[in-house]
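Readers outside the structure-tokenisation community will struggle with the description of the input data as it stands. I therefore recommend that a typical entry be quoted early in the introduction. An entry of this sort, consisting of the sequence and the corresponding backbone structure tokens, reads as follows:
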Amino acid sequence: MDDTLRPLAVFDLDGTLADTAHRQHLLERHPRDWNGFFAAARYDTPLEQGVRLLLESARDCEITYLTGRPERCRKDTAVWLERYGLPPGRIWMRRNDDRRPARHTKMDVLRRLAARREVRVLVDDDELVCEAAERAGFRVVRAGWGRTSPALNAAQEREGRT
């Protein structure tokens, strides 16, 4: 089937497909070590529950990745997806200078995608992103299987970095 006819399944990376627990301590420092946090993403291990859902979704949907990672992480992100044999798909990333909370950046992308294609599901671990997507009428699966520190949650909202 032509992918342009298939609905989209949109998957977040950090905390949904990638286990970030080993690098979250870098955000507990002041100042936060954002460069180290993103550089360590290449060492993330896959989250089994997220990968399983991704592979199931790929049977009926085209996969699209929507992450709060900055554009400068694109190469490491693509290599990570390939290393773990995850389905190919477009990777949507925030501009390097975009510090808006993920609920804003991700909703902008979701609305653009939905204007052209059916978005079957969004899978994300960020509660505020999930709430915004549901309010906008998207079907959401909350990725509650990852471990997110309070420091990461606060940084996502106040500093708009991931």
Q: What stands out?
A: The chain has a mean pLDDT of 91. The radius of gyration is 15 Å. The CA atoms of residues 20 and 49 lie 14 Å apart.
